[in-house]
Structures are given as structure tokens and as C-alpha cells.
Amino acid sequence: LFATGFNIKWYEDSLLLFFLDSGNTYSTGETSVATYTYFATQTNGCGESQATAVMLTISLPAPPVVTDTVICYGNVTPVLTASGSNIKWYLEEELITLVNFGDSFVTGHSAVGSYTYYLTQTVGGCTSLAGDIVLTINPRPLVTLNYNNVTIQPGQSITLEAYNAGSYSWSPAAGLNTTVGPVVIASPAST
């Protein structure tokens, strides 16, 4: 802590009962996260001034900024990213197994499952509490059709309907009225 003036005295309390030190600077020795209040006075030819409260706040930086990621099995697993300074990635909430340094991480996961990583950042020598990022790899939907096996003659058509997915893509496109959506009308040139 620093105060300007003459013959500065530092106290622990506002009643000036517990003298700590004298001088323009005072090193508190505090390292725990909290807000500490100290009181400073100055003395000149007219006596000691009223105490001025001086606050010291020790706080941790926020955890790195992350966004959870969800993909479907078989898609390329994206690189996980975080915003912050001096980022460390861990396997567990207790921050025991360090798996990566930096703002991006290639997990190597491709199997269906949910994978959680815990991240900290260090700013000005202070390390944040851990935040987490989750990579979820969902199974591909099991698409079913209204017909499993059907034969039609050339010139005939049939309406096919798919179920259990959010979007659909049909191929080959030849003989179909559309290649997207849950319902298509198939009119193949041959059986």
C-alpha cells in the first residue's frame, strides 16, 4: 500500500489502537482472496491527522471463456478453444492431470460420449478458479423408413418417408422429386 504525506503511520483499526508500521509504503503480507482495510494518518507540526481508510482487495481472475461443443459421431472433432491468458487444461476438477497449455486443444476424441475438461488462466501471477468445457459426441440417429424393401415397375412412383432425424438427405438424386426433407416421391427409370 502507498500513501503520500509526511510521517505516515499505518493502523489496523479506525480507532488507531493497533499500530502496524510507519512510512509511505506498507507491505501487508496478505495473499488470501479478500478485502482488507487499513488506516493511514500523517503527522505534521499540528499533530496527527484523522485516519484515512485504505482498502486492499485481492481477487482472482475469472476462469477462461469457453463454449461447450456438440457434434455427431463421424463428424470431424473440432479443436476446443478458450479465451484468456496462460491457459492450462486439466482432466479433472481437482486440477491434477495437466493435458494442455494454451488457448486451443485437440482432444483426439472421436467416440460417442461426453468429455469434460477443466481450465484455469493466470493473470498477473494470480490463477483463476477452474471453469469447464464439455465436448459431447452424440450417436448418429437411427433413421427408419416407412418401407424397408419395395419393388415398383418403371413409370410407377412411391412415397418414401424417413423418421428419427432432424434433417434428411436422399441419394442418388435421379428419380427423386427432392433430395432433402423427410418425404420424397421416388419415380425410378428402372426397378
Secondary-structure map:
Blueprint: E1 8-11, E2 19-22, E3 34-44, E4 47-48, E5 52-58, E6 65-66, E7 69-72, E8 80-83, E9 88-90, E10 98-101, E11 104-105, E12 113-120, E13 122-123, E14 126-127, E15 131-138, E16 144-145, E17 158-163, E18 183-186
Parallel strand pairs: 7-15
Antiparallel strand pairs: 1-2, 1-3, 3-4, 3-5, 6-8, 8-11, 9-10, 9-12, 12-15, 13-14, 16-17, 17-18
How would you sum up this structure, described in words?
- It is built from no helices and 18 strands.
- It is an all-beta fold and 191 residues long.
- Strands 1, 2, 3, 4 and 5 form a 5-stranded antiparallel sheet that branches.
- A hairpin with a 7-residue loop joins strand 1 (8-11) and strand 2.
Low-confidence spans: pLDDT under 50, at least 5 residues? none
How would you state the average pLDDT, rounded?
Answer: 92
Shape: rod-shaped
What's the SSE pattern?
EEEEEEEEEEEEEEEEEE
Beta-sheet strand percentage? 35-45%
Biggest sheet statistics: 5 strands, antiparallel
Specify the structural class.
mainly beta
Radius of gyration: 33 Å
- Distance between termini? 88 Å
Note the total helix count: 0
- The helical percent reads under 10%
Number of strands: 18
Please provide a brief summary of the model.
The chain has strands at 8-11, 19-22, 34-44, 47-48, 52-58, 65-66, 69-72, 80-83, 88-90, 98-101, 104-105, 113-120, 122-123, 126-127, 131-138, 144-145, 158-163, 183-186. The chain is mainly β and 191 residues long.
List the keywords:
single chain, 191 residues, rod-shaped
